[in-house]
Design goal:
Order of helices and strands: EHEHEEEHHHHHHEEEEEEEEEHHH
Strand content: 25-35%
Largest sheet: 5 strands, antiparallel
CATH class of the largest domain: Alpha Beta
Shape: globular
Distance between the termini: 53 Å
Number of strands: 14
Bound molecules: flavin-adenine dinucleotide
Number of domains: 2
Length: 285
């Protein structure tokens, strides 16, 4: 096995393009190293991206935020303004593992590990985040919801990797929230995860919304029907009931040891209601 630690995007792409055999990006290693130790993956080349400035940068850009793909959950939480502006995005990243894991785990790794239950992904999708992807032809942009196509499957080529995520400028009277349900208090995989991001007008009416569900299908979902259920409302009970029903209708879950299809479906409706209520209260200030 060969370990490489390039210091530029171009050098990393050259390594990915020229490598033969299984090549893996290394960020925090909290998924990759576990998989290597259990022989789930046996890479011939490991490309550690943490020495590349762009993947370790976090800062404001055009009124929004640019977050390097190898920024950790702990670093996100420590940022002076991000949690106030995008609390749901930070909540998702901060639910990953324990304090120790949060010091290593990155949002790029969480997304590219390809788990439908990845905790930081629904928050990014609800926020309408885009990813900047580096490859042999330079960089390209992609909506986060289009990147994971199924369990362990990504719409990213072998010689590409995610450089950063961009959170757009947040309108006034807007906020977000992420919640997950797990059978114990921490260190478990989501039975269901849900993120809601919404914008209000001056009277408290919802003018825009995005709702994303995790762990209820082969990939994290952006559920337009959930947004349609609450846009135009003040989140009264009738809108909540429609939201709940739309979230349940979008689910195509599996039954496993953490929950049955019926249970996951019901919990999706409950979390859609709760995240919408919290995001609404936050947006009102
Ligand atoms: C004890 C423990 C608890 C955990 N709890 C949770 C949890 O509660 N919720 C949760 O969602 N996950 C959890 N995880 C899984 C893991 O911590 C997360 O998925 C984490 O975000 C992975 O990030 P990483 O930087 O460590 O990724 P790595 O392990 O470095 O990489 C993961 C995968 O993504 C690829 N990759 C990494 N970065 C990029 C990039 N920029 N571009 C392209 N490909 C890339 C790698 O090649 C690899 O295939 C847990 C893991 C452990 C060990």
């Amino acid at each position: 096995m060969r370990y490489e630690a390039p210091e530029t995007l171009d050098a990393a792409v050259r390594l990915l393009s020229s490598a033969t055999g299984l090549t893996k990006i290394l960020a925090g290693g909290t998924d990759l190293l576990v998989q290597m130790r259990t022989d789930v993956v046996e890479p011939e080349v490991i490309v550690d991206i943490k020495g590349i400035g762009e993947v370790r940068h976090i800062g404001e850009e055009n009124g929004g935020f640019r977050i390097g793909a190898a920024i950790t959950g702990a670093e996100l939480e420590e940022h002076p303004t991000l949690s106030k502006i995008w609390p749901g995005v930070v909540e998702g990243a901060n639910l990953i593992g324990s304090t120790q894991v949060q010091g290593r785990a990155t949002m790029g790794g969480n997304l590219c590990n390809g788990s439908p239950a990845a905790d930081s992904v629904p928050g990014l999708i609800a926020a309408a985040a885009t990813a900047t992807i580096a490859g042999p032809n330079g960089t390209r942009e992609m909506a986060v919801e289009d990147i994971m196509t199924g369990p362990r499957q990504l719409a990213i080529a072998k010689d590409e990797f995610i450089v950063s995520f961009f959170l757009p400028a947040r309108p006034a009277n807007a906020s977000d929230c992420y919640l997950r349900f797990i059978p114990r208090t921490e260190m478990d995989i989501a039975v269901v995860g849900c993120a809601t991001c919404l914008v209000l007008d001056g009277s408290g009416k919802i003018t825009d919304a995005r709702v994303s569900l995790g762990a209820v299908a082969a990939r994290p979902l952006l559920v337009k029907e959930c947004a349609d259920a609450i846009i135009g409302s003040t989140l009264d009970e009738a809108a909540m009931a429609k939201l709940d029903a739309a979230a349940q209708a979008a689910c195509k879950p599996i039954t496993d040891k953490r929950g049955t299809i019926e249970y996951r479906t019901k919990v999706a409706g409950v979390l859609a209601r709760r995240t919408a209520k919290t995001a609404y209260d936050r947006a009102k200030g």
